[in-house]
Amino acid sequence: MDVENQSIVSEFVFLGLCQSWDVQILLFVIFLMLYLIIVFGNIVIVILIITDPRLHSPMYFFLANLSFVDMWLSSVTTPKMVTDFLRESKTISFGGCMCQILFVHFIAGGEMVLLVIMAYDRYVAICKPLHYSTIMNLQKCIGLVMASWIAGFLHAMSQMAVIVQLPFCGPKEIDSFFCDIPLVVKLACMDSYNLDILMNADSGVVAVTCFILLLISYTYILLTVRKSSKTGASKALSTCTAHITVVVLFFVPCIFIYVWPLSNTWVDKFLAVFYSVITPLLNPAIYTLRNKEMKNAMKKFRNC
Q: Please, what's the largest Cα pairwise distance for the chain?
């Protein structure tokens, strides 16, 4: 398909979360505050882990990377959504829309792999404690994080290679607050049924594979913890519970959006808000409130 067909639609129009001006003003205030908390909370976690020598371990190294990823995942969509609440015409250029799709899937795909890596780290720490420092050395940790970014990039590019070739020549209204593949594919001037299934399957394979690996990992970890000493089991269980909570909060919305899509538009919007705003907001709270070392580092940080 030639480039001329792609450029017929130069911009897309977001329908947003609602049409009421008063409600939009309220949502502007709410989501602006939530976004500032997301940025501040995740930056604080990164700073704590970098500056506190007691947190210089693989688990916190991965946690710092997760906070960094969460901050950027929210930043791809939330600032645009917040500013659109104050605009009557909520538009985005064709290039801007493609960039949103690219970075959402790049970052989200990388986060899925990173969560699997964090589960692997906990598996080694709990199931092979005597070999933990040898297996999870700094070089390997950096390599695993780089692998998560590469996996996210390859996933995003596999989606973009198809999306940018579609002919967009007519409908341009997106019933959401950001560009996402299922919504954009429906606007293509072609029968998109089979393509929609293909694109959802692409995202679904990544999400379901990572989710199954995580379920297997944490099931094995929890079974191992049951055989441990009471003190060690309690600490391990607390850490794993925090990880499992984050996994469920992140993967469940993604699975319903890409693997098992629902026909209810409002549910889709809620799930999109959940994984792009609520999950990055809750992650810092979950890890700081359920982790003794993080709470101690936070107290030390406050007293400085």
A: 67
Q: Are 209 and 255 in contact (CB under 8 A)?
A: no
Burial of 241 (0-12, 13-18, 19+ CB in 10 A): middle
Question: 51-71, pLDDT tens digit by residue?
Answer: 888 888 998 999 999 999 999
Architecture of domain 3-303: Up-down Bundle (1.20)
Residue of 187, 164, 151, 166 lying closest to 98 (CA atoms): 164
Residue 203 · residue 159 · CB < 8 Å:
yes
The CA distances from residue 23 to 19, 214, 267, in Å, are 8, 39, 18
Measured from the Cβ of residue 297, the count of other Cβ atoms closer than 10 Å reads 23
User: DSSP code of 277?
Assistant: I
Tell me which H or E stretch contains 206: helix 193-225
Total-model pTM: 0.88
For residue 13, the surrounding DSSP H or E stretch is strand 11-14
Tens of pLDDT, residues 93-104: 999 999 999 999
pLDDT at residue number 58: 92
CB contact at 8 A, 232 and 253: no
Tokens 């420092």 found at? 133
Distance CA 59, CA 292 (A): 13
- Sheet with strand 11-14: strands edge to edge: 91-93, 11-14, 173-174
Helix, strand, or coil (residue 18)? coil
Domain residue limits, the chain:
3-303
66-93 residue pLDDT tens: 999 999 999 999 999 999 999 888 999 9
Retrieve residue 80's tokens.
Answer: 């645009």
pLDDT digits (tens, 9 = 90+) for 121-160: 988 988 888 889 899 999 999 999 999 999 999 999 988 8
